[in-house]
Amino acid sequence: MKQKRREIKNKKSRKDSGHICFSVFLFFYKITSVIGFHNHILMVLSFQIMKNTLRMDEI
Predict the structure, then answer these.
(1) Measured distance CA(20)–CA(28) in Å, rounded
(2) Count H helices, E strands: the chain?
(3) Rounded CA separation 48/52 (Å)
(4) pLDDT score of 54
(5) What is the DSSP letter of 1?
(6) How many CB atoms lie under 10 A from the CB of residue 3?
(7) Which residues of 21-35 are buried (b: 16+ CB within 10 A; e: fewer)?
(8) What CA dihedral angle connects 33, 35, 36 and 42, to 10 degrees?
């Protein structure tokens, strides 16, 4: 009886932690989808610039 109760408790805590992780993920996703879109463009541009500068250094 005690073991069964413990298993239920473990399942519940695991479910809660998963839910918390998911809500945190959603929270960050919302922020990054607002800001991150611009950041993504900047990242791509900076990456292209970096690649070009590296290529110039090689030449």
Answers:
(1) 12
(2) 1, 0
(3) 6
(4) 75
(5) -
(6) 7
(7) eeeeeeeeeeeeeee
(8) 150
CA 18 – CA 30 distance, rounded (Å): 18
Q: Can you tell me which residue has the tokens 């030449």?
A: 59
27, amino acid identity: F
pLDDT of residue 34: 74
Q: Token digits for 15?
A: 């479910």
pLDDT digits (tens, 9 = 90+) for 27-47: 877 877 776 677 777 788 888
Type of residue numbered 8: I
